[in-house]
Amino acid sequence: SFDSNIMTRKNFQMGDLVLKWDKAHEEKGKHMKFQKLLLGPFQIVEVIGPSTFVLQDLTGRRDSLPVNGQILKMYFP
Length: 77
Prior knowledge:
Elements: E1 17-21, E2 38-49, E3 52-57, E4 67-68, E5 72-74
Antiparallel strand pairs: 1-2, 1-5, 2-3, 3-4
């Protein structure tokens, strides 16, 4: 059915720790076998929309651009 093809939204909240997909190494052949494809951890410091977030690293440095939730993955220390 149509509904089974819809991607479910991840419910991130302020304060959550997340990993961010490294888009620079997304294409096949642009990364080495054991290279990290996820960056982080980051903390969500602002929720702009249902799937748009502002992140900061654990040292407190804030990212200048908002991030789409599709490239985030929950981080469990």
